[in-house]
């Protein structure tokens, strides 16, 4: 089996991301003294990114792209975008939980600082990979290399963060309007994830209707649904007329991590963010030209 190695900015960017993510989780595991689920999440972000990058490099090193069971026009950039978001989340969460107010030994703190720095470097490397790989104006490319494809990745990632905040503790069972918001998050997440899987699996041509028309119709539907959730969620959580609380409770200041009110506010902000992402998705989808599988 021939080994194919072509030096390029994309290759060096992937190697940099590989090294940075490896150092981040190796140092954290070796001397970071991590505890509870937050540390496990950060380790997962770095290790998952590292493992996926190794897989992509090996496939391209041995020229196995055509034998891979996925679309190689769509898979690497999709993974790079998810890896960038995962490392970004770890770069924010890790220092908040393990550096802010840290009173442990200085050696442990130094390990944690190193992990944070390399996590930020890995984030920059993966963002650079996405920037290098994405489709340029007028270029024929896979759907996931276009702006709407990358937006789909961001939309599903934001939805996953919403699910984390909204489920521990359960924040949507107090009123039917909040259950409606939860259904909006689930429906849009499932459809966006399905689109990503269809593109990666090169199954878009198997649909009984034009894929491009479905994308535009879905983007419009998602914008309408998220607009309603962006309005409804704050009303039924922060308006005193509906049992909400405008002011942040004083007890939240002494709570480790996020209190319930903080999580309600985080969901409201993330809902608005996803609305903007779906709106941008709709605008791009109306004028997108891409090659169907």
UniProtKB/TrEMBL annotation:
InterPro entries per the UniProt record, alphabetical: Marvel, MYADM-like
Membrane topology, as annotated: Multi-pass membrane protein
rRNA processing found in the keyword field: no
This protein's record includes keyword Repeat: yes
UniProt record similarity statement: Belongs to the MAL family.
Top-level taxon of the source organism: Eukaryota
MARVEL domain span: 5-138, 143-290
PROSITE patterns documented for this protein: MARVEL
UniProt keyword annotations, A-Z: Membrane, Repeat, Transmembrane, Transmembrane helix
Protein name: Myeloid associated differentiation marker
Chain segments annotated as transmembrane: 41-63, 75-99, 111-128, 140-165, 177-200, 212-236, 264-284
Compartment(s) where it occurs, according to its Swiss-Prot or TrEMBL record: Membrane
Gene Ontology CC terms: membrane
